[in-house]
Every structure is written in structure tokens, then in C-alpha cells.
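Field log, afternoon session.

UNIT: design team B
ACTIVITY: writing a sequence onto a fixed backbone
BACKBONE:
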């Protein structure tokens, strides 16, 4: 199946990744893919209906989490102190817990501006969530 994914168009791969995240992440209630270079939510699936404004805010929040002004400043300081000149970002995964849900944001290794977002019930086993999402994300080379 991975060979098919590599030959599929970018948008087909994004939709397929969202479907895989939605079905394979434990206790998943929503999944999506955000392009941080444009600030757009490229695709999503959810068990509930959400207003478009909420979905747009998710894309903006993802951008702030990974590439907000202060985050970029922290990365620049670390790169300078370590003498690194690469363009990769330091923040690769972010786990956010709220009262009722858990969000896992995972940056793709090959395309640093693409982030997979998985939303699960708070009762999720976080270790299984991280393992499953990492496995799904690794299968896609967008």
C-alpha cells in the first residue's frame, strides 16, 4: 500500500493520511493535515460537525504552536549556540490535553511545513496514540 501512496497525487496522499489517522489512532474523534506555509487546513475528518471558524482556528493554532514568533526565536538561539545551520525545526511533536480531549500534532519529517493533527478522547492511552500516529505519518512521503 505504501507504493500506491508514493505514486498518488499530493492531495490524494493528504486525504489518505487523514483517513488512516482517523481509523488507526485510538479513540480518535478527528484528524486533519495543516500546511503551515499557507496556514490552511488541507483535509480533515471528524465525527462531529464543527463550524468552519473552529476549523480555520485549528490551522492558525497549529502554526502558532510550531512556528510562532517566540518558538522561532527559541530555535534560532539553540541553532546559534549549537553552531547549526540546518533549516529543520526543533519542535516535531506537540501533545495538548484539555478537559475532554487530547490533541497530538506531528510535523512530517520530509516536509517540515506539513503537520498531522489527531484529536482523541481524553481517556486515550497516550503511548498508543503517539505510536500509531508516528507509524501512519511515516508511511506517507508527501
Amino acid at each position: 500500500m505504501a507504493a500506491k501512496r508514493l505514486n498518488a497525487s499530493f492531495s490524494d496522499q493528504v486525504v489518505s493520511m487523514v483517513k488512516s489517522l482517523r481509523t488507526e489512532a485510538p479513540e480518535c474523534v478527528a484528524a486533519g493535515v495543516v500546511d503551515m506555509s499557507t496556514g490552511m487546513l488541507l483535509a480533515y475528518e471528524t465525527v462531529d460537525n464543527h463550524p468552519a471558524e473552529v476549523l480555520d482556528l485549528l490551522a492558525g493554532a497549529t502554526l502558532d504552536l510550531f512556528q510562532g514568533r517566540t518558538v522561532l526565536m527559541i530555535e534560532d538561539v539553540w541553532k546559534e549556540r549549537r553552531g547549526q545551520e540546518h533549516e529543520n525545526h526543533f519542535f516535531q511533536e506537540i501533545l495538548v490535553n484539555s478537559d475532554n480531549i487530547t490533541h497530538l500534532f506531528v510535523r512530517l519529517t520530509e516536509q517540515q511545513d506539513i503537520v498531522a493533527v489527531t484529536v482523541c478522547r481524553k481517556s486515550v492511552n497516550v503511548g498508543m496514540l503517539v505510536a500509531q500516529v508516528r507509524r501512519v505519518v511515516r508511511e506517507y512521503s508527501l
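LOG NOTE: Confidence is low (pLDDT under 50) at residues 1-5.
NEXT ACTIVITY: expression trials, pending approval
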